[in-house]
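Anyone else keep sequences and C-alpha cells together like this?

Example one:
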Amino acid sequence: MLQDASPRQLPSLKDLHVLVAGDVMVDRYWHGNAGRISPEAPVPVVAVDQVEDCPGGAANVALNLASLGAQCTLLGCVGRDLEGTALRSVLEAAGVHCDFVEVEQWATIQKVRVVSRQQQLLRSDFEAPLPAEAAEALAAKLPAHLPNAAALILSDYDKGAIASPAGFIAAGKKAGAAVVVDPKFKPFSAYAGASLLKPNQREFNAALGAVGDVHALGEQAQSLCERLSIRALVVTAGAGGMAVVDSEDGGQVRHLPALPVEVYDVTGAGDTAVAVLGMAAGLGWPPLDGARLANIAASLVVAKSGTAVVSGPELAYAAAQAGMDRGTLSQDQLRLAVAVARKAGEKIVFTNGCFDILHAGHVTYLEQARRLGDRLLVAVNDDASVTRLKGPPRPINPLSRRLRVLAGLEAVDWVVGFPEDSPQALLSLVRPDVLAKGGDYRCDQVIGADFVTGYGGKVEVLGLVEDCSTTAALDRLGRA
C-alpha cells in the first residue's frame, strides 16, 4: 500500500453549496461528578450539574460544513417537540439552512451520554422507527435543492431517513452533484453509483468480511468500486488512519497514517471526515486530496470533548503545520503559511516576475534561490500588470497557467499572484529573509531592496543563463 502526502490548499468556501441529507439527532451530554457508589446497585452516582445539547448525525455533518465556511442545506426528519425546535435553532444560528420533515407522534432521536471527569460512563439512545411516509416526504424535498448543490452528502445512520439510497444517488448524479455517502450497515450495493463511499473499518468488514487492518483491504476495495460503479472508497480506521482507493487513479490503495494526537473523544469524528470529503468533492478535488484534509480534520475533533466541529481557519492552520502548504496560495493563505513557517524557524526566500513562458533560465535561478533558505515564495504579476509592463499582446499565458506551471517545480514552495506592477505590498506582508532576483541586475536595482535590507534581510542577485529570455523566444517564433 502506498503512502502519499502531496499538498492541497483549502480555498474560500463561501460560494460552495453542499446539500446534506440523512438521520439528524440530538447528542445530549449530562456532566457531573461521580463521587460515590449507589447503595442500590454497584454503579456510580453522578450528580449532574450541566446539560449540553449538540447536533448529531447528519446535523453534525452540516454544522461542520457551515463551520468550514461553506453554504449548507440540511434535509432530515424531526419530531414536533422541543428537541426538534432546539436543533433547528442551533443549526440555523450557525448558518445551516434546515428543510426538515416534522413528524407527528414521533420523537426527535436523542443520544444521551453521562460524563464524569472527562470519561463517558453511560449512553442511552431514545429512538423509534421512522414512519415510511416521513422518509418519502424527505426524499421529495431533494429535487428543490439539488440545482445549486455542488455535492450531496448522505449521512445514513440506518434510522430510516435514507430508506432508499438509490433514489438520492440517482437524483444527485442527474443534477451533476458529487454524491458522497457515509454508510452504516446496509449492503454496500444499496449505494451503487455513488462518487465516494466512506465506511469505517467495522462497517467495511461487516459488508465484505474481516480483512484485517486497512493495509490489507486492497483487492476487496478495488473490486467493490468496479462492481458497484463507485469512483472512490475511503475506509477510516481511527488510530489506523485511512485507506483510499480511487478507480480513476489506477485503483491503487493509498494509506494515510493517523496524525499523532492525544485522543480525547472520538464522538463525531466520522461526521467531520465525511463533511470534509463532501466539501472536497464539491470543489472537484481528487478523492486522495480530500482524504488527506479529512484525516487532518478528524485528528482535530478527536482532541476535543463531545460532538465537536472544526473551523476553516483551524483546519487551514493544521494543514499548514502538517505540510499541506505547498502550491498556489491566496494572500490570506500565504499569511497563514508564513506564520507557520516563522514559528518553525524557517528561512523564507522571495522572488517575483512575470514568468510568461517558463524557460531554462527561470528554472536555474529558482533552483539557486531555493538553496538560499527553507521556503521559496514566487510572486507572479497578474495579466493586467504584465500587459502594462510588457505591452500587448503579453501575457502569452494567463495567470492561472503561469501559477500552475511554477507550482509544479520542485524548487518552489509557494506561488501567489499579485495585481500591482511592483511586489512591494507582498514584501511588506511577508518580510522575507532573502529577496532574490535572477538576471543582470545590481542589488540596488532590485525593487524592494531598500525595504528588505532596512529590517536586516538580504538581497541576492543570482546567475544568468545565456540566451534564455521570453522576449528572445518570442522574437524567434515571430521569425519562424
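And example two:
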Amino acid sequence: MSDKIVEEPKTETSPTPSSKPKSTSKFKTWLTNNKGLLFLTIGSAAISAGALFYLYFYVIKVPPLPSQIIGKIGNFVEPSLVSLAPVYPTATVPGVPRTEESPLNGVLFTKEAMSKMLKRRPVAVMTNNHIAGRPQSGLNDADIVYEAVTESGITRYMSIFWSEGPNKVGPIRSSRQYFLEWLSPFDALYIYDGCASTSDPRTNACGNIYSYSIKSVATRGAWRTNDRLAPHNEYSSILNAWEYGKENNWDEFPEKTESWKFKRDAKFDERGTKTKVKVTFRQDMTNGGDYDSEWIYNRNTNMYTHKIGGQTDIDLESKKSITAKTVIVEETTVTDAFDGKGRVITTTIGQGNAKILMDGKIINAKWKKSSRSDRTRYYNSSGEEIEFNRGRVWISVISKEKGKFDIIEQ
C-alpha cells in the first residue's frame, strides 16, 4: 500500500485577511507595540525560576559530604545523609566492668560492647603511604597496622579495624600478595583499589584474592576528594564496609580467629628508657629518608609516637599524633620479583628475628608463622610466647638483608 499523503485542495471558502476576527487583529497590534515588555517579562520569569532551582537544590537540599555517603548501586554509590555519630558505638558505661578481651589487640570492653562488636567482621584497608598521600585518615582508629615496602622502596600500610568504625579511611591503594597472607588469619573484609596481576603465584594478588576466597569490598562505596591528585585521593568507609558485609552475610566475627597473649602495662618504675628508634626498610633505596619510620617512647603514657620521613605522623581527621602501644619490627627475606614492575616477594611463612618495643624496652624475639591462615606469633629467648600490652599493635616488616633497625637515642 502506498504511504503517499494527498493534500486536500484549497477551497474558495478559506478566509481572506480581511475576514479574520477583530480580536486576533487587536492581539497582533498589541504584540507589535509591546514586544520589548513581553521579552522583559519572560526573562524575569526565567531568572526567578533559576534562582528558585538553585535555592532548593544547592542551599536548602545540601548535597552530602563524601564522608556521609553510604549505600551502593553496583560499584557506584547511592548518596544518602547519615549521622556523623558512630553507628557502631563501643563506648562503655562508667562503672560497668570491662571483662571482655579483644582477640585483635587485647583492649578490654564491657559485655554489652563486645556483644555488639561480635556482630561485625574486622575490616582490612590497604592504606597509601606515598608522601603525596600523607597524612592518612583513620590510622589512630585501627587495632593493628602492618607496614611493609612495595615498589621502589615505598612503604604501604594495611590497617585492620574492628573496635572502631571511622567514616573515612585512606587514601586507599592496591593489594600485594604478602598483605593477603597477613590478612588471612583475620578473615576480614578487604578494602583496596586494584591488585598486582601476574603469572607468578608469589606476586599474583589479583588471582589469589579469588582463590583464597577473600571477602572483597574493593572500592564499593569509595570516593575521591579534590584536595589531592589521583591516585592519592581515594577514600572509603568502615561503616560502608560493614553495611556491605551485612548484605553478603559477612557480618559475624570469625569464630576461629586466633588471639595473641596480652598483659597489663608495666608500672611506671618498671618501665625502660629506650626512647627513640629508627626503622629503615631499604638501605639501597633510601628515597632521602622519606619512608624511614621512627618511634619515640613516652614513659608517662607508655606509648610510642610515630614519625615518618623525619616528620611527626598525624591522623588527618583527629589531628592527633599516630601512636602505638606495642611496636614489632619483623625481619624477613625480601627479594625482587624481576617482573619489570619493581615488585618484591616478601616471605611471611616460616620464622625469623624480631624486635619488640614495649614498656620502654627492646625485646629480642623470634617470629613464627606456620601457614597462610595462621597468625604470626612472637617468642622470647626462652621460647615463651610474648605477652603484648593492650592497645594498637604496629608491625613493621623489613628485609633482613637490606633493612635496618637502629637505636638512635636512649
